Amino acid sequence: MQYERYATVAAMRVAFGTSALTIRTDHADLCAQGLADEWTWRADPADAAPAGTYRCTVQADGARLDWTTDSLRTVGRAIRADGDLHELHGWWAAAGPDAPAAAATEGPA
Fold it and tell me: How many domains would you assign to the chain?
């Protein structure tokens, strides 16, 4: 797992590929079904505002999850080499962003 921290939320969103929070917030969780998807996420379902944006894809290097955490100005990513997006999503939903021993790198300012 890797994290990149940015000087501003705007810089973080540009790096992530979302200049504004225009992604839907209420829909079927396709990542949990092993399908590519993107949406905003909340740390607590009762929160009014999203905590960040979440994207799941399957790429050449395997199943990949990328997410932002707006309050920390970070982009996190995790890759599962076997391509099992369903299992990777299960890990993220249970403890992903809070898992110990995450690698942290400083992103561009």
Answer: 1
